[in-house]
Amino acid sequence: MKLEVSVPGVRRLVTCLLCLALLACSPGSDQDAGLHEVHYHLMHLEKEARQAAEGDEEAMEALESRRDRIDARMAALVEPEGSGLAKWRQPDAAGRAAIALTAKRWSEQRQEIERLLASRNALIKLALASNEVSFASLTIRSLLDEIARTLLKSEGDVRSLFLVHRLEFLAHLIPDWPGTLVDIDTIGRVDGGFWNCGRDVAMLVRSLTGLRHGDAEFRVDAVQSTDVQILLDKALEAAASVSAAVERICGLENELNAAHEALEALRYREEDWPSPDRPYTVVADPP
Q: The whole model's pTM is what?
């Protein structure tokens, strides 16, 4: 088979090779590439930190791996002689200042990564408990919907029917709560989030109990329908699961608050880092 090579194609190939050679030999190119690589990792680090905060163990491992890669690149930038970089490619004063500031900022960020990873067990437990809350709450909502339809058919007490509809709304809100404890984008997140959810779950359990057995303080009479009583017993069983899961989550308050603060500190803000696009020149040629 005859291989045909066009002259323009050869010219383009030679031009590309020359450009690459010039780029590799350009002053300061090692430092420029190093800072660009650090910025690349930093931009991806926040995403992995968010996923790790959701209890994703693979994301936690990826976060550790990215931390190590940034460590290696920063070590090469701070101590180029020991990293194999050519000694004559030293940055000028501006370049050294940029590297020093990047190293300082990375030291601070690295501490926040360690802080987040220190909450690893708590974050995994939060994810598991959140799944339990979601599943049990879905069961409660389904049962409450069936209770409401049964009460309507039997022309049940209006007060009881109103309370059932209120509880449906409450059971709809509770599953969303665990995810707000660490998430940094939740609007209106407050430190009292743990107390708020505990209060909502306690209200859910008490209201269901009142519908089943009566509650004089709430002015709720026990429902007399056998069908509704069976449904309420099932709803109370599911509510007990929610209550137990929430109690476990509340026991993780300190670790989860620390994870939330670390995640907030790991937000990537380009203005916080020296720009890798500023050209750095050679201080002096080697003797």
A: 0.74
